[in-house]
Specification:
With about 160 residues, the chain is α+β, with helices and mostly antiparallel strands. The protein is built from six helices and seven strands; from the N terminus they run βαααβββαβαββα. It has helices spanning about 10-20, 25-30, 40-55, 95-110, 125-135, 155-160; strands at about 5, 55-60, 65-75, 80-90, 115-120, 140, 145-150. Strand 2 (about 55-60) and strand 3 form a beta hairpin. It has a single domain, classed as Gcn5-related N-acetyltransferase (GNAT) (Aminopeptidase, 3-Layer(aba) Sandwich). The chain has a seven-stranded mixed β-sheet, with helices on both faces. Helix 1 (about 10-20) packs across helix 3 (about 40-55). The protein is about 40% helix and about 30% strand.
Length: about 160
C-alpha cells in the first residue's frame, strides 16, 4: 500500500478544502455541513491550532491522493507524551489506510522522543478503536460517549512488537 505522511502545507489546505467540498460523510462527521471556507482560511486555522496546542499536523496520502489528516498534538516534551488524532475521507475507509498512517505517526513520535500516546475515542467509533486495540492500550471510560485510550510506545519496542519500526 502506498501510504505516506507529509507535513501540512498550503497545497494540503487546498486539497483538504476540495475533499470537504465533495465528501458529505466527512462534512457531517466533522460538523462542517453549513461551513464554507477557503484554502487560505483552512491553512491559517490549522497552523494556528498547531501553534496553540504544540502540535504537528500531517497529510495522509494514498498514492498521490489526499486521503485525510493525522496529528501528534499537545506534545509535552517534559512528560514525553502526545495525543494522536486523525480522520480519512469516506472513500478511503476500510482499506487499512488509517492503520498504516497510525504506524507511521508512531515512528514520527519515536523520533520526537515521545514515549506515550493517547486519545479520546467516541464509543460508537469502532473503526478508530480497532486501530488502537492493535497496540493493547489502556482503555478507560471517560464519559458516557467516549473512551480514553493510551499506551507506551517503548513497551512495544521492548517486546519486539513488529507493528512499530
Amino acid at each position: 500500500m502506498l501510504i505516506s505522511l507529509k507535513p501540512f502545507d498550503h497545497q494540503s489546505a487546498t486539497d483538504m478544502v476540495e475533499l470537504f467540498s465533495t465528501d458529505e460523510v466527512i462534512r457531517k462527521e466533522l460538523d462542517l455541513e453549513d461551513k464554507v471556507f477557503s484554502a487560505e482560511e483552512e491553512y491559517k486555522f490549522v497552523t494556528n491550532w498547531c501553534n496553540k496546542t504544540n502540535s504537528a499536523q500531517y497529510v495522509i496520502r494514498y498514492g498521490n491522493e489526499f486521503a485525510g489528516m493525522i496529528s501528534l498534538s499537545h506534545i509535552d516534551e517534559k512528560l514525553r507524551t502526545a495525543r494522536i488524532g486523525y480522520w480519512v475521507g469516506s472513500r478511503f475507509r476500510n482499506k487499512g489506510i488509517c492503520s498504516e498512517a497510525f504506524m507511521l505517526i508512531l515512528d514520527i513520535a519515536i523520533d520526537k522522543g515521545i514515549v506515550e500516546v493517547k486519545s479520546d475515542i467516541d464509543k460508537d467509533n469502532s473503526y478508530s478503536l480497532k486501530v488502537w486495540e492493535k497496540y493493547s492500550p489502556e482503555i478507560v471510560e471517560k464519559n458516557e460517549k467516549q473512551y480514553s485510550v493510551r499506551f507506551n510506545i517503548t513497551d512495544h519496542i521492548k517486546s519486539g512488537c513488529d507493528t512499530i519500526k
